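Sample intake — GNAT family N-acetyltransferase
Collected from: Lysobacter stagni
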Amino acid sequence: MSIVVRDVREHELDSVLALNNAAGPAILPLDAARLRHFFDTAEYFRVAERDGALAGFLIGMGSHADHDSSNFRWFHERYPNFFYIDRIVVASRRRGGGVGRAFYADAQSYAELRYPQMACEVFLEGTNDPALLFHGSFGFHEVGQHVMEEAGVRAAMLMKPLCSFGWVRETYGDALPQVPWITRPRTSSGPAHARRPTGTAL
């Protein structure tokens, strides 16, 4: 069956929370209030479905966001404009099946119209070579390391240049075409963050 990536729905937040907190030490735990905050404010919050079941989720935001993560702050202090992947979680039974790549392709198609680069981190505690290799194969490279003050975990700080951004910016400036695959509005039951004018993130 194909993988479907779409905006999260409010009634799925409990399932997303369970996925996050079952992911193991590579992902920081969340509580319901924190997840609700992401739902209300995150620029990008999408889930993947496979065979009709929730297979994972990805949360991301631009460098203009008011986000209290020390990893986000590390990037913000060094780079003026980027799209930050706060977390990506794939259900254990779906790992290695292409869900992660589907998420990154979707997130990049969103980000490259608005930002010159993508940022994320990979925890270096334990054996996380598969995650580092995955990101390296997708074009990310390490730009530093950071010990998270809130968790005491060292992370590799990764960036990926988005080559299409310059052309998009030069061609369209602050006025991206108003077509569904670009604007991707949330449903009426969700927040309006995806309806933010596209020029504000550039």
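Post-analysis note: Residues 22 and 174 are 40 Å apart (CA to CA).
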